[in-house]
Amino acid sequence: MDLLPSSHSEFSSPDYWERFFKKRGKIPFEWYGEYPQLHGIIHKYISPANTVLVVGCGNSALSENMYDNGLQNLVNIDISDVVIRQMADRHRVKRFNMTFEKVDVTEMTYPDCHFNAALDKGTLDALMVSEEAPVVQNVQAMFGQIARCLKVGGRYIIISLLQDHVQRILLQFFTDMGWPIRIHRIHTDQTDEGNKSMSMPVFAVVITKFKPMPNMPQIIEVCRFEDRIDRLEGVQYLSAIIKDMQYYHIVRQQLQKHLPGDEQVSLELHSAASEVPRYSLTVVDSPKVLQNKFAIFIVPQGRETEWLFSTDKGRLHLLDSAAFQRLVVVTLNRGHTFENMEAIKAELSSKVMELAPPDCPSKSQVPYLSIGEDIGRRFPVSEGHSEASGGYIVEDVEINGGQLFRRLVFLKNKNVVQTEARLKEVRKKKKRRGQQAREDPPDKVRVDKGYIPCDYLIAMVAGLGFLPSIDKEVSCVLVGLGGGQFPSFIQGAFPKVAIEAVELDPSVVDVATHWFDLQPNDQLKIHVADGLDFVRNLVASGDQRDVLALDVDCKDTSVALSCPPSVFVEHEFLTTVSKLLAEDGLFILNLASRDDGIKQEVLDRIHTVFASCAKVDLEEDINTIVFASNISPAVNSFSDKDRLNAVLKQMSLNIKSVYHDTNVDLVEIMTNLKLSDNEAWVATVSQPEKTTCGGTVPELLGTALTQRPEGDPTSRGRIEYIKGKEKNSENYFVPSCATQMMDQF
């Protein structure tokens, strides 16, 4: 029996409802739940003495249930003559006080202020089929009639799915009138007991008629918890909360099936005591059929940003190691206190079975996994606001049974650590046997400058090994300061390297100096400036530097290039960088993107500007560290790995002599060093061809190089090629894009 309309616009057609109820007959049809799920809301806001208008009553059993439970002054209206006659006949004898009338809710003739309450279960959703002007006008006419017929203090109760287009018109209309709005989430059997068809969560909107009161702010409230009503600052926050609840409902339905291998579902759990999510959960399913069905993994505080827990690949690796069909990875959010693992289990126990896979027995005992029993601890240190990046927090985090780290986190991207430093206690007292873990951070700590938190920063330090020497004076421009770990480390280990650090955000400089022990001096100067302008101005003044290191994150999260912003890797700026570098100068770039195509485009562009390029791809991260030079591999050390290894070993000895407890291993980080992505770089040469530039241009891989005038800024240097068993080199000018075909010999 087809009881669904062929077009959603039919919902507002009387003819559709005539056909619907003729087919349906006397069988009650319940939109959005039945009386047992709704009685709490109904009896909370409607008393037996109230006269109630039931809008679009249909043949629902709701009115008779209300009547039988003491609410007997009911006026039921509907646009369908068929259903009104059916319902009047059905209830004439047993429920004689209840009336049924055929009325168009948009053109009612009841007196003003006649009803104490109006109840709408699904009618608004049936009428609000789109946001086309005639539909909106029709719905607004209904709102206007109900508002007119309600007494002051009367309630308009709407049971609705609150889809976006519905809530926009509803909330806007009654916000303009200044009436209080309160929303409850209705828990129905259809949504909570595993109905296999997709559905939406059901809400009750309670709107109270007020007299106009100029300058009085509108009251906006939400009931997410049975025993608590939260008042919000504006209707926009209400919309956001509705979306959260709708998302959680849909996620639960989605989890009734096994997730595809490339899909992971994330959601947040709130407590009644805070607006900040207490737990963040990510659900991961194994493509294998496993005997162990379901487990919860608790990530200790402070470790949520690690690759294993914060990336899709890491969580898949964790799932494979745990050997469960489904794993829920739980992170403990900042701003909350967590007593111990047992307390966390007790809190989550009421929710975790909602996320269980479909083949998991409902009464099975769910194992909780973690790394040891230590849930970690956070100690807030400082909070502030940056004009460039928004709110931030500096916090000390204790993990791994006592290791203490200081972190800078920008709250708009709260799961990304912007800066981290290892801390050491100045005076560390031994714990007595049986003494509990401390609840407060140590009184006196200092930043361990021999610790570098990120592999990409270690690779940037190792890149200095490409220079002819770091035992002589080296001038370096660093664009992007962060917490200052890179310059602080260099400052101590290689005092001959003078660094000018350029940072756009003065708040970052303040955090680095106050909380991460960055100490500017003659060898380390800080400039609050735009890095683009700073480099351009140096070039314009004729200055050169031995090193330009670029470590700038992109604030625009809508683009796939996380680091740097795209303007720093456009051809124009890369050419400016090339001009800034001294003859043996080195460009070091932290390049991060989850889009391999975009990353390759940037690498190709760098190849068009610089004669020599090398890179290190970090296995457990999206970062690629790029090294580039204006001179060919034959002249610099790019192609001489033996020489590079020897330099890195000597650098490591220098580092350990200064930082005895360092985590920096330069040789290891450069193990995956590559000179190019293009394996066809080795040049095979036919007869050299004379050019107007006075040199010879070998034909590389059958591709004739386009001639450029000698002064062309995109032409440069030397090329080496193999002729027989001899290595040859000739001076000539070619477009720099040809350098991507050169390799070590």
Report the helical percentage. Answer: 25-40%
Name of the top-level CATH class of the largest domain:
Alpha Beta
User: What shape does the CA trace take?
Assistant: elongated
CATH superfamily of the largest domain, by name, is Vaccinia Virus protein VP39
Rg, alpha carbons: 35 Å
Biased composition (Basic residues): 425-435
Protein name: Methyltransferase-like protein 13
GO molecular function, one term: methyltransferase activity
GO biological process, one term: methylation
In short:
This protein is an alpha/beta fold. 28% of the residues lie in helices and 26% in strands.
Any key phrases for this structure?
Rossmann fold, 20 helices, 28% helix, single chain, 745 residues, alpha/beta, disordered N terminus, 9-stranded mixed β-sheet, 26% strand
